[in-house]
Amino acid sequence: LEQDVLAQIAAATDEAGLDAVRVGALGKKGSVSLMMRSLGGMSPEERQVMGPALNGLKDRLGSAIEARKAMLEAAALDLALASETIDVSLPVRPEPKGSIHPITQVMEELAVIFADMGFAVAEGSDVEDDFHNFTALNFPEGHPARDTQDTFFMKPDAEGQRKVLRTHTSPVQIRTMMSQTPPIRIIAPGRVYRCDWDQTHTPMFHQVEGLVIDRETHMGHLKGVLQDFLAAFFETDEVVTRFRPHHFPFTEPSAEMDVRYERVGQAVKVGSGDQWMEILGCGMVHPNVIRNCGLDPDEYQGFAFGMGVDRLAMLKYGAPDLRDFFNSDQRWLGHYGFSP
Ligand code: PHE
User: Fold this and answer.
1) Which terms in the Gene Ontology molecular function aspect does this entry carry (predicted)?
2) Cβ(258)–Cβ(277) under 8 Å?
């Protein structure tokens, strides 16, 4: 019997087969167990001889099974290791990585620069109503900017109201003044929409609105904030700007600010040249706007500005065509260092 079981153990090629052999010999109804049970019917003399003999057999078979089991496990491990080998000398397969879009990157930079100057970030929504986008901002009825030419109007809703895609971030001025008490110092970055398409216009673009409302704010503060901002953003004091009188219904006086630049080959360069790019509109908040928000214009006044983020990005990164920013062309993004 012993030779027979040992042969079966040696022949077992996997753990399941080996276990079947174990059950056949040492299990409850196994051959060895049955012999052990027969000890009860033996004479004391027989039992004295057979007892130790059977126990010895049981131990020997048990250790033979353990040894075989260890061997099978080791072999299985070797097999797994051999089949899962990694050749660390192979070159790495290039894997394209995502990166932050240049416009998002610039918006984050702006938020950091203005945070240093004490501005908090405020938010509005892309879909606005006529009141916040126009009326509260002192747009007269029939003002050309309300015209369908520039504004994307939504279908009338259940109440017959025609919402718009906000044409600027200035409605956030209204939302902020109606919900906070001065002193107010916020910027509002976000998307805005106008029906327009050329080298420096896309139907969706980005602005950062700025608003300061306090008791003794004046135009000098406005200019100082903008100059400090430009020096920090372009990382130089060489930026040449010009302040041009302008008109906005919601500021008085109003101005636009241009940055001097030139085209060098396919790129755009700031600080030299004879071209001007308009980067923002600004002014002292109109008393009507302050009144429309429930504040007293004799007590409070302040300034506001709205800058074109995309234009700032063009100037900073030297990209000549704004439309490229929204074409999702990996080669373009790579060329301007925005993706690997
Ligand atoms: N909202 C104006 C625009 O879109 C910019 C602006 C903002 C002007 C704040 C003055 C004050 O052109």
Assistant:
1) ATP binding; magnesium ion binding; phenylalanine-tRNA ligase activity; tRNA binding
2) yes
